[in-house]
Amino acid sequence: DTGVSQDPRHKITKRGQNVTFRCDPISEHNRLYWYRQTLGQGPEFLTYFQNEAQLEKSRLLSDRFSAERPKGSFSTLEIQRTEQGDSAMYLCASSPTSLYEQYFGPGTRLTVT
Amino acid sequence: GESVGLHLPTLSVQEGDNSIINCAYSNSASDYFIWYKQESGKGPQFIIDIRSNMDKRQGQRVTVLLNKTVKHLSLQIAATQPGDSAVYFCANAGNMLTFGGGTRLMVKP
Q1: What is the phi/psi pair of residue B77, to 5°?
Q2: How far apart are CA B90 and CA B67, in angstroms?
Q3: B66: burial class by Cβ within 10 Å (0-12, 13-18, 19+)?
Q4: Cβ B97–A102 below 8 Å, yes or no?
Q5: Among B49, B55, B60, B67, residue whose Cα is nearest residue B84
Q6: Residues 6 or more apart in contact with residue B53 via CB below 8 angstroms
Q7: In terms of DSSP bridges, do strands B56-58 and B45-50 run parallel, antiparallel, or are they unpaired?
Q8: Pick from B3, B49, B96: which is nearest to A101 by CB?
Q9: Can you name the residues that pair with A34 across neighbouring β-strands?
Q10: Chain A partners of B4 at a C-beta cutoff of 8 Å?
Q11: What is the tens place of the pLDDT at every residue in A6-62?
Q12: Which residue ranges in chain B fall short of pLDDT 50?
């Protein structure tokens, strides 16, 4: 399967714990995006990378959130000191460049108890 | 049971009928729009896109219409099938995607 993959698919954590998600984009896609989606809403942009450079961050991305793409391939999204409001589906997408269709992974569903 | 937050507009159609899903936009980062289909528990799946130099684009059983004057686009699905049941989102594609509110399509057999 050469699509976007995300790991884990589901994560249940207690409030205050740290969690880390991984995204593997389609190979040779320069752009990698993170979105968050809550029930009944469309995905909301969090941040994106062009190769290893993080070019833009939404104001939704609080100081507790950090994303990396160290080698320009896979990316990780870490949430520190999780809160119940962080419960959502975290989606990763990739594209060859801007102004091009983005291909989404299956998402990681986070539940903070 | 009922899920909190699922206040999506719903379009219910009979199998075999045509479906039209609408999307209005205001200030767009670009004139490039994409329609996505999202099934329960899955990530959005690309359906069709359209750029500003076009007002209509056709795919397999789907057509997207773009009216830049009134800032409106629509997705038409011909001969709707049960497998088309999903939530549909329009998105404006600049450096990132900006999604509109979704529409839930329910296909009655």
Answers
A1: -115, 120
A2: 14
A3: buried
A4: yes
A5: B60
A6: none
A7: unpaired
A8: B49
A9: A47, A92
A10: 39
A11: 999 999 999 999 999 999 999 989 999 999 999 889 999 999 999 999 999 998 889
A12: 1-6
